[in-house]
Amino acid sequence: MNLPMLYEAAVPFASRLPAAVAGHADRGIRLRFRRRWLLLAVTLIAALAECVSVPGALLGAAGLWLLFGAPIVLMYGIANAVVSTRNGRAILAVGGAVLGDILAALLTNTLLPWAGIGAPLERIPLAWASVFLILALTAAAPAPGRLRWRLAVPVQGLGPVLWLGSVCVILSIAGPIRLNNGLSGKVAMAALVALALLLVVLFVRRGQHSTTVTCVGLFFVAVSLLLLTSLRGWYITGHDVQREYEVFQLAYQPGRWQIAAFRDAYNACMSITVLPVSIVRLTGISGLYVFKVVIPLLFAVAPVGLYRAVRHGAPQTIALLSAIYFVAFPAYFTDMAFLARQEIAFLLLACVLLVLADSGRPLRARQTAATVLLVGIVLSHYSTTYVLLGVIGTAYALGVGWRLAARRRGGFGKAFQRPVLLTWWMIAIAAIAAVLWTGPATHTGGQAEATTKAAVLELLGKRSDSGSSDTSYSIFGGKQVTEAQRLKNYATQTIQQTAQARADSDYLPLSEVDKYPVTSVDQADLPLTPFGRLLERAGVNVTGINSLVRLSFARLLQVLLLIGLVLAVVARKPVFRATSDQILLSVGAVVLIGVLTVLPQLSVDYGVLRAFQQGLFFFAPFIAAASVSIFRWTGRRATTFAFAISVGLFLDLSGFVPTLLGGYPAQLHLANEGQYFDIYYLHPEERSGIAWLRQQAPEADRESVQSEIQTDRYTFGRVQTLLTGRTYNDIYPTLIGAKTYVFLGFTTVQKGEATLSYRGDLVTYRYPLGLLDVTKDKVYASEGAEVYR
Known about the structure:
single chain, mainly alpha, two-stranded antiparallel sheet, 7 strands, 65% helix
């Protein structure tokens, strides 16, 4: 496939279509097709730009048009069949464009090798794949209406929202940059204040703002919070995103995605393989900033989609509070920026709910569109798929029971409708797609099978183990284990696993290891600030209050959720009238979170906090409604009190209040210290140490000496995109190899601490450097990295 051949095929097609249309349509239709041909002409120019050498800015513009511009414009028209509102269509168009890009790249990757093209994910094939996608969307999209040069939606209050939102984004970019340069987090703190102010504006002016203006404001809030975290570090920073970026490179470097290159569930996520490869190839944006900026920008549409979905059946206040609770939940701004595959899956999930919530379009069309989006989630992220199938499966089963009960009593009553949104075939198609994708297509369902087996054994009482400490936030409870006990259990497990190899002298002898016991280390709190010391002198235990607020917030959300569900069923005049489907989906989400909490293996493999974040898509409006209902005795002030609580929690959970007062562990987006900084932030000294090590290890290989590189789990996570050869991500004393290199990262060198993950929890411990000094030689040393041999 080359440029002349594609050009020769495209020109005759382009010349025949207008004539055919002209023969069967009046002048008005011809004018509308000319406007569509303007879009196609720009698309052709963009595709040609991708095939020749053009400046970076032009390449970026061409790629963005092919991937997002033209598809979003066309998807906006297609979305009219399933969504009745303009802003809803815009949100769905973004999700549809992302799914279209994934499918186009996946088909290109699958089909072109059959034609002898060994690198289908290069720029030219991907450019023309986008062209064919745009042609297909053009054929499916309705004829565009007459262009109007004025906005067709109310814009009262848009100016202040745009201005304040822009300030928030600028501060959210400047804050991480300052921190990355070793400066203070004052600008990041200012960003949080500006975000709180923007929320106040959205609430106070909610009566004057159209839903479009509120959507714009919420997008600024959502993207600003994500950028505060995603832009930390000059390199890939975070937990899962390290492995995601490595998987992306496996597809990017050879120009082809192959599951055989790394048969792992990560590599089966098209959201972190073919999608970012397409963006990098066509726009010229580096992979680093695709993960740090582009994907968070796409994910920021999800909270807006939640707001728009809730707004279909609830007052403006409830919809706004639902979105605030979603972005204020700690997992949103501390973890989601490090989970690119889940960010894309959540965007598609928001689109599913948006389509199902809009009763202004035919039900069957909405169900079909939702099913297509569910298949997109299957391709994007495995865990989101499993949790979602559990939620909708439970909701459907409850709905069947509800129908049977209603049939016996002669109806659903005046307050409720018959559940109609979820059908068996929607769930069946999504489930079959998940089985086929993780089974015959990629053979990556091993982890899911192992987790299911362990959960069943736990349910039957044949296996007992500790779960994640996240379960402590749940009112369902959960077995709690101290860090010291987790460390002891981990040591016992590793000794058992290495017994035979240790007998063969592959590991250090236990007689030597036992001389250097390890102890767990608690997270250090920030020192009290002048404000914190002032409160302490007034008799306020700042440290205790900070911890209490965090725990109380988690419990408060769960209590409000239960109150909201109960009121939705029994209240005569609820704050908003929930449909039967909303209630069933929310109950399904609650049931699934309860199962995750009481079955330890599930809480380890899919954290409770992430599950709750996903659950907020379904039950956030019930939490919002309950927060208003408990203040109904105050009359018209009820919504104001509910909003004040949500913004107060936002300022505390985002880290603003704890940083302002001190007495709580530092957070990555506000400081150059704290647990996440210690274990996820890559330092220049570590890069230099790895560069030296890469030069030394191959020489040892040539001498046929065991030369595996060992480093602790989180230093490994920071540098895994730099390491080559055989590496092990654990330097716990019982796992030190007798003939391996041992790489110590910045935190271990500077603080003498290392961190491991056991049963879903981070455990930091004092590292016994004396063991390495006695059993190995130090062959490299700097202020932030050391290597032993």
